[in-house]
Amino acid sequence: MKDHLIKFLGDRESKTVYWAVAFLILFCFPLSVLTQTWDYSSVEIVDTGQGRYKAFVIQHPKDKRKVKGYLHLTLVVSPSMLERGIAQVQSGARSGLYPYESALRHLVEAINKYTDIKADFGKRVAMADPELLKVPWVFISSDVFYPTDVELTNLGRYLLNGGFLFLDAGSGIGTRKDINLRNIIRKALAKIGKPCEFRRLSKNHQIFHCYFDFDTVPLAFSAITPRWGGRSSLRYPDYLVGVEVEGRTAVVLCYADIGRTWQGRPAQTNISPQMSSTHYTRSLQFGINTIIYALTQKGSINERILKEKLGD
To answer: What's the pTM value of the predicted model, to 2 decimals?
Structure first.
């Protein structure tokens, strides 16, 4: 019976009888008991492909490497982001209007390779679109951009309703890109009346250990070449900076130039193939950690979907 409930969560056309069964089980088994006693091996999550949910994932309560479900990875865009893309196209660059779309496609390949989550690249969603509130994980690696008031308000609502932002803040603390992203987060949270405090995340934070284990943030390609001088406390720091929204880590800034690394394009040609492959793989695996953390944390969109269907 529980198996049918999990199938039901991904099925847009489920019949009324499933609702009756859901409430009957909920009456007999509180949600806390239900989520602790289900048989992971017998659960099947079905995605009908009708777009009602962007993702649904479950993780074994006793084995973090057992995680399955589906994910339609989404690229969030803003007209302001496209200005640089247009300029690049006009100058003959090959990256196109969405230069980091290839990075997300590589991340999709890694998710399918290293986990039992069935991932694909979904449609693009505008930052001002209410559809944003269904996207469980958002990656932004744009150069400096300036969202409108409507976009900022929607972004604030997104964070308040269980959304998660993973921000590629470039190569270091205090850079133009870092300052721009911090200002955007401050303004978005101010729109919904929430404070904004940036804090360094502990190495014991769950984002470092929720699937793969990391002692530090993986190095960027450009940080492992002698020409660039390596890593320091401000340049390519080995830590993350986070922002909490109502007690939940909802925003994470990373300073490992991770978008470029996911693209698989080393900044210098003197990196050995073996070193390049290792850093590329670990960088993608770290991206997987951020997604699983976003989907399984308390207060996430993923958790909200479960509660909406089974009751609180």
So the answer is: 0.81
